[in-house]
Amino acid sequence: MFTNADELPHDDVAAEAWWWWGWNADADTGLFVGFELRGRRFDYWAGLVRPDRPYLYVEELDGTGLRGDGMEIKPPEMWAGHSCDDPFRQWSMGNEAHGVLIDEPEDALDRPYGLPAPVTFDVEWYAAGEPRAIPHGYEQVGEVDAQVELLEGVLAFEGPAHRVHVWGAPYVPAALAMPIGVGVPLAPYRRSDGRGVLQVLTRSG
User: Fold this and answer.
1) pLDDT by residue (tens digit) across 106-132?
2) Distance between CA atoms of 42 and 187, rounded to whole angstroms?
């Protein structure tokens, strides 16, 4: 059984991570937000995939600048917040940052260099089921209402969503056989421990 307090940071754990994913019904547009705490340091990621557009990637690795209860970060030249509005029912996530537009998404695994791009995420996550236990925490299906402000305007979409929260260990997804090919949306990221994670957007998430 999980309690409402389990939604928020746990004291005296080596690592704790929250992840959210959301995508549209066609599974050609999607985003993710990831946040990992290690004491007073953190890693933060956000990404956006769209049809026929470069991959938009935001990262802050081994960062400092926690605020309040540890769910808001303010490292140099960016801001991000994660708010539990209703335990196991609703979360709000936002950021104001400069990401990079990357023509070859796999480059994010090693050298995420690209065209700098100011971006603002405004994401509402709503539960569509009860949390399910996984090693070190839980996962939950949901729905997302997202607005991403870009130089060319606001991209908005609604659709299915998923999230994970673990504590006592970092979150690294299990290796799965994934479709790779022309037109398959890729959303990779790199971790501060040197590992890379290649995410692929499909209709199931």
Assistant:
1) 999 998 999 999 999 999 999 999 999
2) 20
